[in-house]
């Protein structure tokens, strides 16, 4: 059942992104920024937490989940470290995912020999 919930929530988020791309003049970069920003805002307001509780990975993997992780990390760090936590918390909470993306991206580039677009 968890897989189905994750698929539904992740699918809804992807459908929203596709509708934004198809129905507006927004570029993928605009949608990326909008999703990360909306995830951060919804996370800070406490609205995204129930979505994560229901959808699990389906809510935390898309770009909105990255924004949510940034805001949650900043809020938790402010509670424990004070104002400096607002600057360090988001970075600390997402560092593992960013580091993994860099490492695995590098490994894939070494294995598959990427070519530049012409």
Give a topology summary:
Layout: H1 2-23, H2 28-44, H3 48-55, H4 57-60, H5 63-81, H6 84-112
Helix pairs in contact: 2-5, 5-6
Question: What can you see in these coordinates?
Answer:
The structure is a single chain. This protein is mostly helical and 118 residues long. It has one domain. 84% of the residues lie in helices and 0% in strands. The chain is built from six helices and no strands. The protein has helices at 2-23, 28-44, 48-55, 57-60, 63-81, 84-112. Helix 2 (28-44) packs parallel to helix 5 (63-81).
Descriptive tags:
118 residues; mainly alpha; 6 helices; 84% helix; 0% strand; SpoVA; Stage V sporulation protein AE; membrane
How many domains make up the coordinates? 1
Strands, total number: 0
Q: Structural class of the secondary structure composition? A: mainly alpha
The end-to-end distance, rounded to whole angstroms, is 45 Å
Low-confidence stretches: none
- Apparent shape: globular
Helix content: over 70%
Strand percentage, roughly?
under 5%
Radius of gyration: 16 Å
Largest sheet: none
| Number of helical regions | 6
Order of helices and strands: HHHHHH
Mean pLDDT, nearest integer?
91
């Amino acid at each position: 059942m968890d897989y189905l919930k994750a698929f539904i929530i992740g699918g809804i988020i992807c459908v929203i992104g596709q509708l934004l791309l198809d129905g507006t003049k927004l570029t993928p970069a605009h949608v990326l920024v909008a999703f990360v920003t909306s995830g951060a805002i919804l996370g800070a307001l406490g609205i995204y937490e129930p979505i994560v509780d229901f959808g699990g990975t389906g809510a935390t993997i898309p770009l909105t989940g990255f924004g949510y992780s940034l805001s949650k990390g900043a809020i938790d760090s402010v509670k424990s470290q004070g104002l400096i936590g607002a600057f360090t918390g988001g970075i600390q909470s997402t560092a593992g995912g960013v580091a993994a993306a860099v490492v695995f991206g590098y490994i894939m580039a070494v294995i598959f020999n990427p070519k530049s677009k012409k």
